[in-house]
Amino acid sequence: MAEASDRTMSRTNAPDPAFDWRRIAYLVQVSRAMDRLEEERLVPEKKVLYQFSARGHDMAQVMLGSRLTGAKDAVCGYYRSRPMLLSLGVPLEDALGSGMGRAGGYSDGRDIGVVFNYPNVGGTPALPMSGGVGAQYTPTAGWAQAVEYYRSVLGEKEFGGSMGVVLGGDASVATNGFWAALTIATTQKLPMLFYIEDNQYGISVPSSYQTPGGNIARNLESFQNLHILSGDGTEPAEAARLIEMATAHVRARKGPCLLRLAVPRLQGHSFQDTQTYKSEEFVQSEWARDPLPKLKSYLVGSILDEAEWDGIAAKAAEAVEKAREEAEARGVSSPENVLRHVFYEGELQQVGGQWTHGYTPPPSTDVPAGQGQRINMVTAIRRTLDRELEINPRVLLFGEDIGPKGGVHAVTMGLQDKYGVERVFDTSLSEEGIVGRAVGMALAGLVPVPEIQFRKYAEPAIEQINDCGTMRWRTNNRFAAPMVLRIPGGFFKCGDPWHSQTNEVQFVHNPGWMVAVPSNAEDAVGLLRAGLRGNDPVVFFEHRAMLDDPWARRPYPGDDYVLPFGRAKKTREGDQITIVTWGAMVPRCEEAAKDFSADVIDLRTLMPWDKEMVLESVRRTRRCLIVHEDLLTGGFGAEIAAVVADEAFLDLDAPVARVTMPDIPSPHNPVLLNWAVPSVERIRAKIDELVGF
After folding, report:
1. 499 is catalytic
2. In sequence order, what are the residues at sequence separation of 6 or more whose Cβ sits closer than 8 angstroms to the Cβ of residue 421?
3. Whole-model pTM?
4. Residue 426 CB coordination number (10 Å)
5. Where are the alpha helices (DSSP H) in 257-405?
6. Facing residues of 425 across strands?
7. Which among 161, 176, 342 is positioned nearest to 252, based on CA atoms?
8. What HEC string does 157-195 produce?
């Protein structure tokens, strides 16, 4: 590990000509003026509701940002990263106006101003950060892996020296995201720079509670494939030297680097934080390390004189005041606009997804070929993935055991042999790492197809799933991360609380995700291909009981078959009752309804769902039964029932009813499982009850 050099000598060294020191001085002064304006005026006036000062962190961040000039680089920061954003060229009125929740800016008033993004077309983008600590690491690892894929597999030379850079504080190194990204970057030797700002506190908790000894760089000295640098981020010469060394190491394709710089946090965690947990002596010691006076001492007398330094400070203050006037003049976005950009609406995002790289979906049809041998869902999904891998080099498959093993459900069997480990590969055992890296890959323009091995195992990835889904909305259509997230689940022969959960409704509750729940091979092909060629993130639910179920077998519908989301299908037609269902319950409902005149509607997708078909049917049959495998309380059936009650109440001749699992996990013993999962007998009994009501 490179330790701090002699600080007295570093001050006497001539400033490194590789850095634009005048611009650095200006931007540090701009950052200080913004912090001062917010703390002294905008927060007391209640024009800014969340304020996080960057004082102490600012100089080194600006220096790092000045080394990011390539359009194929990307950086992802956290709530104290505005100085870095300024160095990338974000308009000052956006930086201030976003904190004030005004129209335009990072999010059009939808998100907290410190939760930023910056497309920076033609320059280095700042990827959409998250409000959750540590959530920035794995998407950055995904971007770095995409860089390696573009230059090594696709041979795109403009990615030659590119990298992903992630910023985090010393507290964030305790998070799952940090360790997942560290594992990804080091095992794959990715071009990724971990930039850790160590201010010794996570809000009020000392860094020694986050890391043994309080120094993550020292603890990682023996971590293989990781170059470690550490030093003082308040000393201009030392910070410049270490930043130059770190970026040069990664750009030379020598693998990832972790750069830890010690910096003071000169204000509280946020404006409301009084820092009573710090002693007066400690606070004074922090102010004694303020990098701004050190920067002035370093530059004045070497490349600046006192008058020019003062002129830079005055220019910065003037620019910030002008930006405040422009930001306040923007007003607030129209409330009606807040409903826009949950999903793609025809207006292309600036960054993310293959469509922004010129991709045009091939011609398709929604009419299945419907000929040939019937195949099971496993074969149908595999054949669709195979075809899209063949015609689209941006498609990548990854997850636990999907490589040589072919997946625990055999869906990806043989695909790694055919397309190589660069395109079909196994991952470390980290669901946050799997989905998080997929987010970064999607932002870089690839089509990631991550797999979560079983539905229950998605829980550690929920933060990344939520952040991915809300990305288009919270950036006001500046960024999006389209992907297809494959998730097997549901009962199969037996059950248990860990492998047999469905709980599809949780993904519907994550805005921005389309949710597919195919019941058969034909629908699986059409919906999967729609996701792979689309421009929104998709959860593709593969029910374990239907993967090789004889009922679910269908002829392969063709290489051009695409099934639009939100279009249900009637698998039986009648006029006594409407039965709404999906997944493994469809054949059970068909069997239960064979002695009745019933509409059986297979929704096929839950987000969006075909409300029009359901309402049309209910208004005609005047009865509605909803059947699903998920729990009764809060299941998606409750949403359907509420819509029917709201919009077709006067058409009903019987109460809207549901047959579901009870509010318990899936039991393991087959006898207990068959009692809990909706059976043909239970469904038939409820149909009979409603028809006779």
Report:
1. yes
2. 403
3. 0.95
4. 15
5. 280-287, 291-299, 306-328, 377-391
6. 398
7. 161
8. HHHCCCCEEEEEEHHHHHCHHHHHHHHHHHHHCCCEEEE
Alpha carbon distance 208, 546 (integer Å):
51
Domains and CATH numbers, the chain: 17-332 (3.40.50.970), 354-555 (3.40.50.970), 569-691 (3.40.50.920)
Identify any residues that bridge with 355 across adjacent strands, giving them in sequence order. Answer: none
DSSP string, 229-268: EEEETTSHHHHHHHHHHHHHHHHTT---EEEEEE----S-
Taking CA atoms, 79 is separated from 37, 114, 184, in Å, by 18, 5, 24
Q: Tell me the per-residue pLDDT of 443-482, one tens digit each, with 9 for 90 and over.
A: 999 999 999 999 999 999 999 999 999 999 999 999 999 9
Contact 31, 83 (CB under 8 A): yes
Question: Do 555 and 369 touch, CB atoms closer than 8 A?
Answer: yes
Q: How far apart are CA 2 and CA 5, in angstroms?
A: 9
Residues 656, 623: Cα–Cα separation, whole Å: 7
Q: Which of 499, 543, 628, 668 is catalytic?
A: 499
Per-residue pLDDT of 507-529, as tens digits, reads: 999 999 999 999 999 999 999 99
Q: What are residue 588's phi and psi, to 5 degrees? A: -70, -40
Give the C-alpha separation, 570 to 83, whole Å.
57
CA atoms of 88 and 119, how far apart (whole Å): 10
